[in-house]
Amino acid sequence: MDATVSEEQREIRRTVRDVLLKHCGSGDVRAAALTPGGYDEELWRRLGCELGLAGLAVEERYGGAGYGPMELALACEETGRALCPSPLFATAALTTPLVAALGTREQRERLLPRLASGELTGTLVLPSGTLPAALGLTDRAAAISRKEAGGNAADWSGGGRSGGVQARRTDDGWRLYGEAGQVLDGHSAGLLLVAAHTGGYARGRTLLFLVRPEEARGAVRRRLTALDETRPQARVQLRDVRAERLGEADDAADDDVGGALAALGGTVAAVLAAEAVGAADRVLERTVEYARVREQFGRPIGSFQAVGHRLADLHVAVQAARSAAYYAAWAAGAGQAAAGAAVAGVALARALETARLVAGEAIQLHGGIGVTWDHDAQLYFKRATSDELLFGPVHGLRARAAAAAGLFDATDDREAVVL
């Protein structure tokens, strides 16, 4: 194993950081979050098109850079430091890999170049609160293959009778009906990758469908009021919307959607962990800077032993979380399926905990200004809290990782209470 960061990877990180320092300051972040799209379109053109971040992990034959999860994680670590609102995660980490894994040759050739260039943004549409389970990060059943489970219609897709999005086959193709909440960038994405249940209860299964909301009649998208405005969420309603199946159109085609999502879980967890580490690292830097200049009793508060010890503990926590995130990214890129499944959830749990801890301590150490609307500490605390709600719970991530590592017997129910 060699999970060290190469000079080329460091250059990617430096380049992204330089651009964000110039174009994604505190005022820029707040202004971008309040736009209808929830992000700065000009900055996205710089990141997605000029720097090629949207296509970092896309094969070169489709217009990408041909890198892997490690490079994408390093880029997202920098966007996390700046709390940069952008469609990078939803497009590059969720949508593009699934199109590449399950799409037909024609679909890949049509969609991947546009996704890789940043011209087209996308997102994955799942029922509310089911993303970690669908990716096999918090629910063992979501990672079981269709052959083992007797069908791939897992609970996260809306079940067999109702809920989520339902799909039916008609003379002119597929039609979708239902709704999903908490869809990342769902109000602005140019391509919706919708997980829908079809086949009824007895023979139900989950398939993925492509929807272009600007062209589809009956698609209604509304941005939600979220705790973290820098990570926009939306409610997507589909009312008899025409859709294109991702993959072979033949009903007999053996698409293992659950398996593809579970295989993607390690990469997604590594990218999210790196993003959380970036946010934790930056808010810690700002807290250290404040402790050096804020005086109490005639001396900087950072000179007090109690404050210094707290900051040192936070530094150790951030470095440990970064190491775990980098290892998870390496495991995902090296094709270590077993290792990736075992460490991805642990890395994400560690990073989410660290981000929440550091952001909370930052508010405490900043004193009264730490809780004011004008200070950025509250933005980092909201990001940490929101991410833990969206991609956790932390104990569920650890329980799933323990099960994947074989620490518990398959019939042992105690894994549900592992903390």
UniProtKB/TrEMBL annotation:
InterPro entries reported in the protein's UniProt record: Acyl-CoA_Oxase/DH_mid-dom_sf, AcylCo_DH-like_C, AcylCo_DH/oxidase_C, AcylCoA_DH/ox_N, AcylCoA_DH/ox_N_sf, AcylCoA_DH/oxidase_NM_dom_sf
The Acyl-CoA dehydrogenase/oxidase C-terminal domain, residue ranges: 271-394
TM helices/strands, residue ranges: none
Record's keyword terms, sorted: FAD, Flavoprotein, Oxidoreductase
Signal peptide extent: none
Cofactor(s) needed by this chain: FAD
Molecular function per GO: acyl-CoA dehydrogenase activity; flavin adenine dinucleotide binding
Keyword Phosphoprotein attributed: no
Pfam families (alphabetical): Acyl-CoA_dh_1, Acyl-CoA_dh_N
Domain Acyl-CoA dehydrogenase/oxidase N-terminal residues, every copy: 6-119
Similarity comment: Belongs to the acyl-CoA dehydrogenase family.
Listed name of the protein: Acyl-CoA/acyl-ACP dehydrogenase
